[in-house]
Amino acid sequence: MRSIGAKIRDEMRGNLPSDKAGQRFNYPITLFLTNHGFVEFWNWFDSNSWYPLGCIIGDTLYPGLMLTATAVYKIFQFLLFTIHIHEVCVLTTMFSPPTLQSLPMVA
């Protein structure tokens, strides 16, 4: 709980942890998923990553975090909240691990 409080405090001060590897990787992929949909995301060949070979995105990663961030973003849009997809990615990476790790204790 203390680490979550520290992350929220940094977030409120405007110190987004955008320099971490997770956000540098998850943000562009989540942005593509949000803009193009799941089918194009699953069949997407990203020629900019792993240059010069490229990378088949849909087959080579676990899309749970990207799908969760996209769902949260769509919910915020439906509720007429203005939020950027980058902020949703940051918040999703902050809250998903503690939440998912505590689920077995509840069950």
Task: Please bin the fraction of helical residues.
Answer: 55-70%
Unreliable residue runs: none
Strand order of the largest sheet: 1-2
With helices defined by DSSP (H or I, 4 residues minimum), what is the helix count? Answer: 6
CA radius of gyration? 15 Å
What is the makeup of the main sheet?
2 strands, antiparallel
Mean pLDDT over the full residue set: 74
Q: Shape from CA axes?
A: globular
Total strand segments: 2
Order of helices and strands: HHHEEHHH
N-to-C span? 20 Å
Structural class, from helix and strand content? Answer: mainly alpha
Q: Beta fraction of the residues?
A: under 5%
Descriptive notes:
It contains six helices and two strands. The chain has helices at 2-12, 21-36, 38-42, 57-60, 64-78, 85-106, and strands at residues 45-46, 55-56. It has a two-stranded antiparallel ribbon. Helix 2 (21-36) crosses helix 5 (64-78), helix 2 packs across helix 6 (85-106) and helix 5 (64-78) crosses helix 6 (85-106). The longest helix has 22 residues, at 85-106.
Question: Any chance you could write out the topology, listing elements then pairs?
Answer:
Blueprint: H1 2-12, H2 21-36, H3 38-42, E1 45-46, E2 55-56, H4 57-60, H5 64-78, H6 85-106
Antiparallel strand pairs: 1-2
Brief write-up:
With 107 residues, this protein is mainly α.
